[in-house]
Structures are given as structure tokens and as C-alpha cells.
Amino acid sequence: MAVYTHLSDADLDALLGEYNLGEATSCKGIAEGVENSNFALTTTAGRFILTIFEKRVNEDELPFFMGVMARLAQRSFPAPRPMPTRNGALFTRAAGKAAAIVTFLDGVWPRTPGIAHSAAVGEALARMHLALEGFELTRANALSVDGWERLIAPRLAQAEFLRPGLAHAIEHDVAQTRASWPRALPRGPIHADLFPDNALFLGEQLSGVIDFYFACTDFLAYDLAICLNAWCFERGCVFDVARGAAMIAAYETVRPLSSLERDALPVLARGAALRFFATRLADWGDTPAGALVKPKDPLEYADKLAFHRQAKGAADYGG
User: Fold this and answer.
1) What's domain 9-102's superfamily in CATH?
2) How do residues 219-255 score in pLDDT, each as one tens digit?
3) Which pTM value belongs to this model?
């Protein structure tokens, strides 16, 4: 989350005029993340999150994102519920850009995830996958293999500047991952960005999963591989097998992995690391001056890739 677009009082009044949410009593920018402009909005009707969609979000894809959240909320999964306008739409416009208001969820994201957090996320991820079975809308994953290459190829010189020898290593990772990428694993809607700052906890109990604006239709096990990258590395990018084992075991209490999914975990995890290296590399040079956000370091995922290159099977991740 971040703030790129600033709302005037008139903008906010016009926006709330489209909803049955009462009058605004507070609207404060949230200076975290890198993708959209987000605000903590309080009205006489309650607490909400207002999102103004920025650079990477295609307005034509908003029905998918909003539909995923609405389905999950309907099925008692702790996801934000999109608030409808007076006309029943789940998104509208503010300050000339697409915008949406969703319910506020209590909780804080864990700055130092442990085994209990990893297990809770694994279980929630599987519950989410089952809750979205039969969801009719689809969205291709724009940040799969072709997407990584489009972001990385024109920035190889930048990668080399960050660390000598990195450009060649990343080119090798992309080529090997493309050659080994699975073709026939179970698919469905996935979150695709379930990092610690997108999971809310009250103590060690998961209270919410937020920020579904990278959600797409892809391999379900790829979502798990993303979470292994995001939740199960110690500082210095050392993989914590205990956290990985807790996450995978908790996932499988709800949705057991197939043998093909288990066999694919190393390449899926390597691909997930490439995906986040690619977008971080792009953000490193492209984040506009003055944005209330600091781009995340792509070298974190370059270091994680070193682990994935050595992984031989699911056991290396605790599975």
C-alpha cells in the first residue's frame, strides 16, 4: 500500500456521495507497499479502506478482484468485503481513477513471522483455494514466466550494477525455470501476493487476508510456493525448514497436495522468487519521486534464488 494520488475534500465528498456509508470523519493515507494509493477511511457508518488503483491495475480486471473478495467474504473467509455503490457497483472512480471501498479488518501484520504464523497462513491459503472453487471469472497471470522476462530483460544492466555477475545468474534462472515450468497442475483463483504485510493477526490467530489486486488464475501450488518465499526465510535468506514444514502441513490438513504438485514445488518456488525479483527490480528504478514509499530491495530475492537453485524436492522445503 502507498499514496500516489491525493484526494481533495471535494473528491472525497463526491466519492462518498455514491455510497450509503454516511459522512467522512477521517481519511488518512497509508504509507506502505508499492502498488496503489490506500487510505484508512472512517465514516459515520464505520471503518473502511479506500483504494485508488494506480499503474499496474487494469480497470477491466477489477470485476475479477472484487468478485474474488466478495466470494470469500460470503463464504466466511476473512477477506475484505467490497462495499457496493448506491447503484450496486463494487468499484467506481475518484480523482479521475478507478477506486473501491472495502471493509476494514482488525489485526496487525507480523514483523517477525514464526512457526505459528506460517502454519496459520498455510491453513488459510488452502481454505481460500477451496472457497474459490467454481468461481466463474478468470484472470491470466500477467506475472508468470513471460511477465518476468519482460520486466527483467531491459533491466539486466541495472541488475549487474546492483551485484556484479547477477545478470548472467538471473538469465540462467529464467531459462531453466521456463524449461521446467509445469503444464498440468490443479488451477484456480490464487492470491499471488500473500506476504506478511497482507496477512493480519490478532496474537497468533489470523484475522484477515488483504490486498487481492494481484489475484489471478494459476496453479494452486504456485500460491503456496509464493508463501514459502514470503514467510519461511530467516534474515540473510536462509530457508527455515521448520516454518516451511508447518506451512505445508497446515495447508495439507485442508487440501492435500498431489504428487505432481509436490514434485513441482522447487521450480514453482524458484519461479516465485523470479517473479518478485522482477517486480522489485522494476520498482527500484521506476518508483516516482515524492511517493510515500520506499521500493523493496531486489537483492533479497536474488539471494533466495541461490537456495532454490539447490533444492531437489519438496523435502527441502519441509514437505
Assistant:
1) Phosphorylase Kinase; domain 1 (3.30.200.20)
2) 999 999 999 999 999 987 899 999 999 999 999 999 9
3) 0.93
